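Me: I keep going back and forth on a fold encoding question. No explanation is needed for now; the record alone will do.

Assistant:
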Amino acid sequence: MTEWSWRLTRAPCSVRGIGGAVIDRTWTASPKLRSTRLCDVPKRCLLVDDQQPEVGEGDVPAEERMSADQGEPRRKSPVERACMGKVDTIQAAAQASASGRTDGDRYEFRIFRRRIGPEAAVLRAIGGGGGLDICLDCYVIVPDRPDAGLKLRGGRAELKLCLGVEDGLERWHPEAAVPLPAYGGELESIFRGVYIEPPEGTRFFADTSALTRWLEAERGLRVVPLRMRRLPVLLPAARGEIGEIQFDGTRLQTLALEGTDPVSVAALVARLGLGGVENTSYPRLLSSSLTR
């Protein structure tokens, strides 16, 4: 849900997890998270292709418009991608990692259903809406790592790690983001974070398609295109989202809440009547749906 334009240099360190416990960053999923039951999502949904999600109308940002012929968002030029986040923020990100700070952590709650019901209407009533966003993300399914969100989005590779669960909310940390084009050495922080052997340092990846081919052919990983139509909902202490996704012949609707303050996010979850409902992230949804 959140996009980052910086990249984090991997550094050996420990961070303080929920409750103040020190967590070794080489394995960040808490036992509670690892033992969470995987959601059971049907392969075929009841929605038909011509049905539209109940997410309202609005202008689609030009850089995210999908081409009917290509089926992908417009890619930024090589110069734009090469300049994104590669100069000014690398040192600050590395220092944050070395010090154990988790300034970018966000607490998230998400559900997937065939049809989102009254919860969506309540969310729209209490928050302000933005323009309809249409985009395409490619998620990399990392075996046995539902706590790792590795995806290719908007001309860059991103990695988020779930540090644990608190009051039903997953705490996600932006581990690394590398704009493309890039060399293998620049992508090392992405792949080391999920124990994937990185490419040779001098190997060049011009775009996300080239990186996808390498992941599938040389690492045997599945890369899943996931199309999204989503409506952001702006709230005083958090951010909401109502939308529809399509992947591998499956169509689902989704509702999400996220923010930096877990108390505020948990209060919104309760206000929508979703307390006790299973929190399902994109990595967990895709892992359970496509690997069973």
Remarks:
- The longest helix spans residues 208-218.
- Residues 199 and 214 are 9 Å apart (CA to CA).
- The chain has one domain: 14-35+42-290.
- The first strand starts at residue 14 and ends at 16.
